[in-house]
Write a structure and sequence with these properties.
The structure is a single chain. By secondary structure, this protein is of the alpha+beta class. The chain has 19 helices and 40 strands. The strands form 14 sheets. Strands 4, 5, 8, 9, 14, 25 and 26 form a 7-stranded mixed beta sheet that branches. Strands 16-15-30-29-28 form a 5-stranded antiparallel beta sheet, sandwiched between helices. Helix 10 packs across helix 13, helix 10 crosses helix 16 and helix 11 crosses helix 16.
Length: 702
């Protein structure tokens, strides 16, 4: 400390007394009386948010803030270093930053040393800065800044949230979602530099007195997978094209781990452009939107009935209208005639006579679940609902979710709960509860955060699977899986249209009347489905739903959802139940850091670990890569490396996924328009042709 202080004193002493700065060889005589010590903040870079393979979802992009020097005493040698012609300067620059000329003139006509230009002059791109610099207008200068950018646009936006520049705190700050809940990890710590400048504001070379290093924010890796997320959002588009659906939601989860692989909704928003986005759009449906689940909830009623030995799948029940009664002791019973307690019937008042509970599940009989709850008793049923977690919020990571509600006072309310009416749940609760049904009865907590690392890739936090209960036995879970298999494969199953040749799935569908102004709507419903696969050992769980007019619940050909299932099945090692094993087996590899290594080394290393690597440019050294190095990625992930070369040629994109194309765009900045979904089947520019950033490249995916 004493040594540092001595150095600083000597440095200032030389400047002050000698009027000649030894280190910088600067003659200070012209401005010795006007030398000032000045401290400037060094802005920390906000941490990146990435998917599980290192694909950037949110990042800080370097931008520039423009300002104007107005004091006519400021000179650069014999040249003016201030705005000489206010009107001409405004006429030239205002159109470039989309600012009113008169407004810019007014700002530069103030009696101040310098002025800024508000939001119009903030966060300008490098290309725009260069364009303004080329005008050679004195007095117009720039400061480095950062702005938050989202390279993938609409990509689980309601989960990721948004960070924007805060005018009060003078920094980029989280506004919604993960950007807010993990603000402390992301924000970093600013540094500072103290130096000397002359009366004109010019820094004197070599006069730095003190410097505090910047500590950049931590990087957060999510459990989301770009390919699966984009397939989910493509499914939204498909549903919207075929129906008058609104308020769509969907999620994909690993059954055994609780990792959320995709999480989305529609409408959503592009965090790069939120000027016309309503406040309502920022609500996260899956966490804050509790809705009646409808018949997808019947799986839990059956699980309770089977696990408590109240029923067996081969037992018979009467599927006709169920009249709710109460005996002398207040116990709910089935009455043979209408009572004041109400009644329930099957969809479209169907009556199949005496049928097994297995058939009742496949047909999605309301009277079947009513009979189960009546026989087991409302107290026992509630015990199972609590064990499945429906009375408490899930609280995944730091996200705030609601717990929903159960109307369970009157006999008809208890009966209605059995088929998902009169109870509201969130998507995150359904995923957690279904994890028990899809596994061996073990219920795991869903989560979004995989790990957090600092700027040096040192691990700060690593997630782990959390078991939150065992609400049912193994045999109960396996029986439910068999029942859900019948929903897809039996002739009268309600999920027949979801059947695929590529993978054997299990499912449960649901249709819940929408509550509007306190009453059940006769026109609008929430249509939903829960899917698991492969049947023999479910690894993946999907929950998907949307609001739609009742008349259109079968308009959707579910091609979007089937494409989602097919996409995921190709990424995971599984036997599809038809004796066909996936050739694209999923496993993890340690991705090395190729940056600063030669292309020869990178190709050799990639070959040794059986990694697909795509070289961008004709250089000899790697300057950037996606996914980033020093992390685990799936073996199916194509790795892109950008070289230090100046010439780029068009790659053969045949077979590339949307994830591959987005990574290429991020590294090159090239303009590529994607049409369709799936993998690339054709491209507008021939492979091998020279390309640059002025070209528009069209690719078709199928």
């Amino acid at each position: 400390m004493l040594l540092t202080l001595t150095i600083v004193i000597v440095n200032v002493f030389v400047v002050t007394l000698g009027q000649y700065h030894v280190l910088s060889k600067t003659d200070l005589n012209p401005y010795v009386s006007d030398v000032n010590v000045f401290t400037r903040t060094l802005q920390a870079k906000r941490g990146d948010i990435l998917d599980r393979d290192g694909v950037v979802i949110a990042t800080d992009s370097r931008t520039f803030n423009m300002y104007a020097i107005l004091d006519d005493s400021r000179m650069d040698g014999n040249k003016p270093a201030y705005v000489v012609d206010v009107e001409a300067t405004a006429q030239a620059i205002a159109p470039l930053i989309q600012m009113d000329v008169s407004e810019m003139i007014a700002l530069m006509s103030k009696d101040v040393y310098q002025t800024e230009f508000g939001t119009k002059g903030r966060n300008l791109s490098l290309s725009l800065k260069n364009e303004i610099d080329a005008l050679n207008l004195p007095g117009i200068e720039f400061m480095n800044s950062y702005t938050r950018s989202y390279p993938l646009g609409i990509f689980s936006s309601n989960l990721i949230g948004l960070a924007r520049y805060d005018d009060i705190e003078k920094k980029v700050k989280g506004q919604w979602g993960l950007e807010t809940f993990y603000e402390n990890e992301l924000v970093g710590t600013n540094g500072s530099i103290t130096y000397q400048q002359d009366l004109y504001g010019y820094i004197l070379d070599g006069t730095t007195i003190d410097e505090t290093k910047v500590v950049n924010g931590h990087n957060i890796y999510l459990t989301l997978d770009q390919t699966i997320q984009e397939a989910l959002e493509s499914a939204f588009v498909s549903t919207l094209e075929q129906t008058e659906a609104t308020n769509l939601f969907g999620a994909v989860m690993e059954v055994d781990t609780g990792k959320i692989l995709a999480w989305g909704q529609s409408p959503s928003y592009d965090p790069n452009n939120i000027e016309t986005t309503s406040e309502q759009t920022f609500i996260n449906y899956g966490l804050q939107g509790a809705v009646e689940p409808g018949s997808t909830f019947k799986a839990f009623t059956y699980a309770a009935g089977l696990d408590s030995s109240t029923i067996n799948v081969n037992d018979l029940f009467d599927s006709k209208r169920f009249y709710v009664g109460v005996d002398a002791n207040g116990k709910i019973i089935r009455s043979q005639e209408a009572t004041r307690h109400g009644s329930v019937s099957n969809y479209e008042h169907k009556d199949w006579g005496l049928i097994t509970y297995e058939e009742g599940f496949v047909r999605s009989s309301n009277t079947g679940t009513a009979q189960i709850v009546t026989d087991m008793g409302k107290e026992n049923f509630m015990d199972y609902l609590e064990a499945f977690g429906f009375v408490s919020p899930v609280k995944p990571d730091r996200f705030n979710d609601v717990s929903g509600a159960i109307s369970y006072t009157y006999p008809i309310e208890v009966i209605n709960t059995s088929f998902g009416q009169g109870i509201t749940v969130t998507a995150i609760q359904m995923l957690q509860a279904y994890s028990a049904i899809m596994s061996d009865g073990t219920m795991v907590k869903p989560y979004f955060i995989d790990k957090i690392v600092d700027e040096n890739s040192e691990l700060i936090y690593q997630s782990e699977t959390e078991v939150v209960g065992n609400p049912i036995r193994l045999d109960t879970a396996k029986t439910l899986q068999d029942l859900m298999h019948g929903v897809v494969n039996d002739d009268f199953g309600t999920a027949k249209r979801y059947k695929l040749d590529s993978v054997d799935i299990i499912a449960k569908t649901g249709t819940a009347q929408l509550v509007e102004e306190g009453r059940y709507s006769t026109e609008n419903v929430i249509s939903s489905v829960v899917l698991g696969f492969p049947y023999e050992d479910p690894q993946i769980l999907i929950y998907y739903g949307y609001q739609v007019p009742m008349s259109q619940i079968f308009y959707d050909d579910v091609s979007g959802i089937k494409n989602l299932v097919h996409t995921i099945s190709l990424m995971y090692e599984n036997d599809n139940g038809n004796g066909v094993e996936s050739t694209n087996q999923y496993y993890e590899i340690d991705l090395p850091q190729f940056v600063n290594h030669s292309i020869t080394y990178s190709l050799s290393y990639a070959k040794a670990i059986d990694l697909s690597i795509e070289i961008i440019g004709d250089g000899t050294t790697v300057v950037s890569q996606l996914p980033k190095g020093n992390q685990k990625v799936s073996n199916s992930q194509k790795v892109f490396v950008l070289t230090d070369g100046d010439t780029l040629t068009m790659p053969d994109m045949t077979g590339w996924t949307q994830k591959d194309i987005n990574n290429y765009i991020i590294l090159t900045g090239y303009n590529i328009k994607m049409n369709g979904s799936g993998v690339v089947i054709s491209q507008s520019i021939t492979p091998g042709q020279k390309i640059d950033q002025t070209m528009l490249i069209d690719v078709i995916l199928e």
